[in-house]
Design brief:
alpha+beta; elongated; two-stranded antiparallel sheet; eight-stranded antiparallel β-sheet; 22% strand
Length: 392
């Protein structure tokens, strides 16, 4: 029986791996569809639209000669324009013979489509699961916050500090900061501490002291602040070790329970764009921290790690985790592709701008050499990142 269960688990995980590959291919398809759509609108000649690299798996040739291709390795994709990467001196349809403003739009639209898809995914996430705000689900008569908090209350801040995922300031984080600032040491005597409710964990005795904390909540469309209660946990020496919103160390949903606040349809519609823009800003902060050494290279993920992460999180958390990952990946692709790194759209956009300003085309051989070297370095960097993840 155990062997059958193991085989079943393996096949189930393989199914989630396939789902993750499909998700990544879908994201790439959206990006390349942006380039393709802009190119079609601006009358560029397109030779091939490909999802993935490497050997061809499927290919269809349209009546106008365009090829739609699915390739073996879901590590990216491309939309091949006529004469792209060539000087195009003798080919009026070549990509580099098109006006600079047109090329800028085509290059930008890949990331723009990722951003638009992130807005849609954010709308779905907020409507179906919620993300940042916390809703009180139940307050039992035994709760330390009975008659203070009510079912349906939406907690949007703690002690005047609003929940903000951009700075990793979630409800739990804000409570921990507030409690440590105000109650880092038990204020009473040893005798008073020993008289508090106590419990034993891993052979050590801990004590709970009920103290006040300010909840910023939304109730019936109004924003109000309430002095609620929280149990601060101390060790035998009166040193802070944690906190709890329950009356004991055990989980008890009948006493008190919370969950993500699911936005209404209208709220999701209004918040989808600001929510996505916050993720863009968070990504820029992360890239800045990587450049300054504040974050380790291990925080990055290549395509293999991305696929396994999607599979693992989706298997363990179901749709809710997948709903969180979709806007995150879409924003990541949008921001990353606009960075001024060789082989990426942002790098090519810079050179088109330079050409536009100086009114003279840049030597295409030099640009191709820079792009090729950049691509090799980028692929090498991705391999290093994957090796580091595999070794950890």
């Amino acid at each position: 029986m155990s062997n059958l269960l193991s085989v079943s688990t393996v096949f189930t995980y393989i199914g989630y791996i396939i789902l993750a590959i499909v998700v990544l291919l879908f994201m790439v398809l959206i990006h390349e569809l942006g380039h393709y759509t802009a190119g079609k609108i601006l009358k560029f000649k397109i030779n091939e639209f490909s999802v993935g690299f490497g050997p061809k798996l499927l290919q269809k040739t349209k009546k106008n000669g365009e090829k739609i291709t699915l390739r073996a390795f879901p590590l990216g994709g491309y939309c091949a324009f006529e004469g792209e990467g060539e000087d195009g001196a003798e080919n009026p349809q070549a990509f580099n013979n098109q006006k600079p403003w047109k090329r800028l739009i085509v290059l930008f639209f890949g990331a723009f489509f990722n951003f638009l898809s992130a807005i849609i995914f954010s709308f779905i996430l907020l409507l179906s699961c919620g993300y940042d705000l916390v809703e009180v689900k139940n307050v039992g008569t035994d709760s330390i916050n009975y008659s203070i908090l009510e079912s349906g209350d939406v907690i949007y801040g703690i002690d005047g500090k609003e929940i903000d995922f951009v700075d990793d300031e979630y409800m739990n984080t804000l409570i921990s900061i507030t409690v440590q600032e105000d109650y880092s040491k038990y204020s009473g005597t040893d005798e008073e501490l020993k008289a508090e409710y106590s419990f034993v964990s891993e052979g050590k005795t801990y004590y709970m002291d009920t103290r006040s904390i300010l909840f910023n909540i939304r109730r019936d469309g109004n924003e109000i602040s309430l002095d609620g209660n929280i149990n601060v946990i101390y060790d035998a020496n009166g040193e802070y070790t944690g906190w709890s919103l329950l009356s004991s160390e055990r989980e008890n949903n009948e006493e008190f329970s919370i969950g993500n606040y699911r936005y209404s349809f209208g709220e999701s519609l209004l918040q989808a764009i600001p929510f996505t823009c916050k993720w863009v800003w968070k990504m820029l902060i992360i890239f800045g921290q990587l450049l300054t050494g504040q974050l380790s290279i291990t925080t990055l993920a290549g395509p293999v790690t991305t696929i396994t992460t999607i599979a693992t999180y989706t298997q363990s958390g179901g749709f809710a985790y997948l709903a969180i990952l979709l806007p995150l990946i879409a924003v990541n692709l949008a921001v990353f592709n606009l960075l001024p790194i060789p082989a990426l759209d942002g790098f090519q956009m810079i050179f088109v701008l330079v050409e536009w300003i100086r009114k003279k085309p840049i030597n295409q051989k030099v640009l191709n050499m820079i792009n090729n070297i950049g691509l090799m370095l980028l692929l090498g960097f991705v391999v290093v990142v994957e090796i580091i993840h595999f070794a950890l």
